[in-house]
Amino acid sequence: MSPATVASPMTLLVPFDGAALSTTALRRATEFATFRDEQLVVLTVVPEDPAYARERGWLDPEDTFDVGVIERKLRQRVRDLAPDADFRCELIENVEPVARRPTWPAVSARSPARSTPASSSSAARTPAA
Predict the structure, then answer these.
(1) Contact (Cβ atoms closer than 8 angstroms) between residue 43 and residue 90
(2) 3-state DSSP call for residue 15?
(3) 3-class SS of residue 31
(4) Helical pair 67-81 and 20-36, crossing angle rounded to 10 deg
(5) Does residue 73 fall inside a structural domain?
(6) Domain with 75 in it
(7) What's the whole-model pTM score?
């Protein structure tokens, strides 16, 4: 076989926070990793912020912030969904606030460079009969 036809092993990285979207992504990545016989790594990043953890459902309201508890809960959820995946949990210091909504400026749907449709511009040039 030529080197061009031999595929290199690939590692699939799936961010996981337990939400429905990340759960679906993990399920699909598990199927793909199994089909391709690839390694699957699941990563959870936990900011040092109890309110954030509670918003995500990682902690109950009466729980104190404990990364170990969060890691064990998420590790078990990942194990239930993808038993062969490698799970990693990283704690980050909360040095800056987490964006709650997009911070970039909204782009107008109609920019000055955008031309008008041909039907309206030709109607404006057609002389009245």
Answers:
(1) yes
(2) strand
(3) helix
(4) 50
(5) yes
(6) 19-96
(7) 0.66
Q: Is residue 34 part of a domain?
A: yes
Domain count, the chain: 1
- What's phi and psi for 87, nearest 5 deg? -105, 135
Round the CA-based radius of gyration of the chain to a whole number and report it. Answer: 24
Give dist(CA 93, CA 105) in Å, integer.
Answer: 27
Kind and range of the H or E run holding 16: none
User: Quick one: tokens of 47?
Assistant: 């900011």
| Range of lowest pLDDT (31-35, 42-46, 110-114) | 110-114
What type of residue is 21? L
In a domain, 9, yes or no: no
29 torsion bin: left (phi>0), alpha (psi -120 to 50), beta (else): alpha
Residue 30: inside a domain: yes
pLDDT digits 0-9 by tens, 66-101: 999 999 999 999 999 999 999 999 999 865 665 666
